Automatic annotation (TrEMBL):
Its EC number is 2.6.1.33. This is dTDP-4-amino-4,6-dideoxy-D-glucose transaminase. The gene is vioA_3. Belongs to the DegT/DnrJ/EryC1 family. It holds the Pfam family DegT_DnrJ_EryC1. InterPro entries: DegT/StrS_aminotransferase, PyrdxlP-dep_Trfase, PyrdxlP-dep_Trfase_major. It comes from Paraburkholderia gardini. Keywords: Aminotransferase, Pyridoxal phosphate, Transferase.
């Protein structure tokens, strides 16, 4: 038997239901010979996701990035869009691909989301929209963001890549804004291998989105817009239907892992655990900690120690989007404009969390963190 210390622990793994449960879906796809282009499973998954998430209009995509790009196209966003630098780079790349200038605003030190107090000072005559992110499935301050948008006549598109199933005050977080974009990538709570979706407010907008993701076709011979190929295929959709059947189990397993981490680290000086408000339904998508200066080792020291023990913690999000070459020359990208985001990006560390994480492997993660705290405190 192998030494458990040598076992590699990834930061996340996709939830994979038993293979024998997937076999009937594959056999049915082979029998129908309809593998893409709005097939039966695609249509069924759209409806079941609407029911599960508590939304009315949802369009499936082959991945979340194409969803973001298409959402901006569907709303005809141009000019400047205020967004967060503390996100996965696809958030700003979607703007870049549409010829839109990202304007970075700082984040809240509590929620780690776009700080409403920093938005208004950045609005110019060229500003057309806001693109906030529900980071780590923690809802943005949607009420204040939408009040600002209403005052200045701005659109709001939420990057909800992390926020599958999240509700605030018993209302789906996806029902805020003009649109919300989900990711169903293999690293997410709910996955279709690759995949994503746009949630919108009305049937007319959904039709436009569905046209855009299918090259702009509305029928066999009519193209009404310069669309893209963003369609989800039947194998992805079938896998999503199977995933939905296991979501209660997945959420319970993630909640258990989250609780064990919180119990282990609650008295560790210098480690700050990210808190999500009590009025929010959690999906336990990530377990980020902030390694503050009071901790006896730096974030990168702890990261390297975890890696040396075959534990794939991730500095997520680091660097900031604003620090990448294609964005760092923007006036809004300077660290002086983003002091909170800059500090958080140098402190954050996401620990492994996924349904199949064994207690023994989680214990290794916990022991490595506690050992680092104890050993470095003794040395200082």
């Amino acid at each position: 038997m192998s030494d458990p210390k040598s076992t590699f622990v990834p930061v996340t793994q996709p939830f994979l239901p038993p293979l024998d449960e997937f076999q009937p879906y594959l056999e049915d796809i082979w029998k129908r010979k309809w593998v893409t282009n709005n097939g039966a499973y695609h249509q069924q998954l759209e409806q079941e996701l609407c029911d599960y998430l508590g939304v009315e209009h949802l369009s499936l995509f082959s991945n979340g990035t194409l969803g973001l790009i298409t959402a901006l196209q569907a709303l005809k966003i141009t000019g400047e869009v205020i967004t967060t630098p503390f996100s996965f780079v696809a958030t700003s790349h979607a703007l870049h691909w549409n010829g839109i200038k990202p304007v970075f605003a700082d984040i809240s030190p509590v929620s780690l989301n776009l700080d409403p107090d920093r938005i208004e000072a950045l609005i110019t005559p060229q500003t057309t929209a806001l693109l906030p992110v529900h980071v780590y499935a923690n809802p943005c301050d949607v009420e204040r963001i939408e009040a600002i948008a209403d005052t200045y006549g701005l659109r709001v598109i939420y990057d909800a890549a992390h926020a599958f199933g999240v509700r605030i005050n018993d209302r789906s977080i996806l029902n805020y804004g003009d649109m919300s974009v989900l990711s169903f990538h293999g690293t997410k709570v709910f996955n279709t291998f690759e995949g994503g979706a746009i949630v919108c407010r009305d049937a007319k907008t959904k039709r436009r989105i569905d046209n855009l993701k299918n090259f702009g076709f509305v029928d066999e011979t009519t193209v009404v817009a310069p669309g893209i190929n963003g369609k989800m295929n039947e194998v992805q959709a079938a896998f999503g239907l199977l995933q939905l059947k296991h979501m209660d189990q997945v959420n319970a397993q993630r909640a258990r892992i989250d609780a064990r981490y919180r119990n282990a680290f609650r008295n560790v000086h210098g480690l700050k655990m990210h808190e999500i408000p009590e009025n929010c339904t959690k999906n336990f998508a990530y377990f980020p900690i902030l390694v503050t200066p009071e901790f006896p080792a730096t974030r990168d020291d702890l990261y390297n120690e975890l890696r040396a023990n075959q534990i794939a913690a991730r500095r997520y999000f680091y660097p900031l989007i604003s620090e990448f070459p294609m964005y760092r020359g923007l006036p809004s990208a300077g660290p002086h404009n983003l002091p909170v985001a800059t500090t958080v990006s140098r402190q954050v560390l996401c620990l492994p969390i996924f349904p199949a994480l064994a207690e023994a492997d989680q214990d290794r993660v916990i022991e490595t963190v506690l050992s680092s705290a104890w050993r470095n405190r003794r040395a200082s």
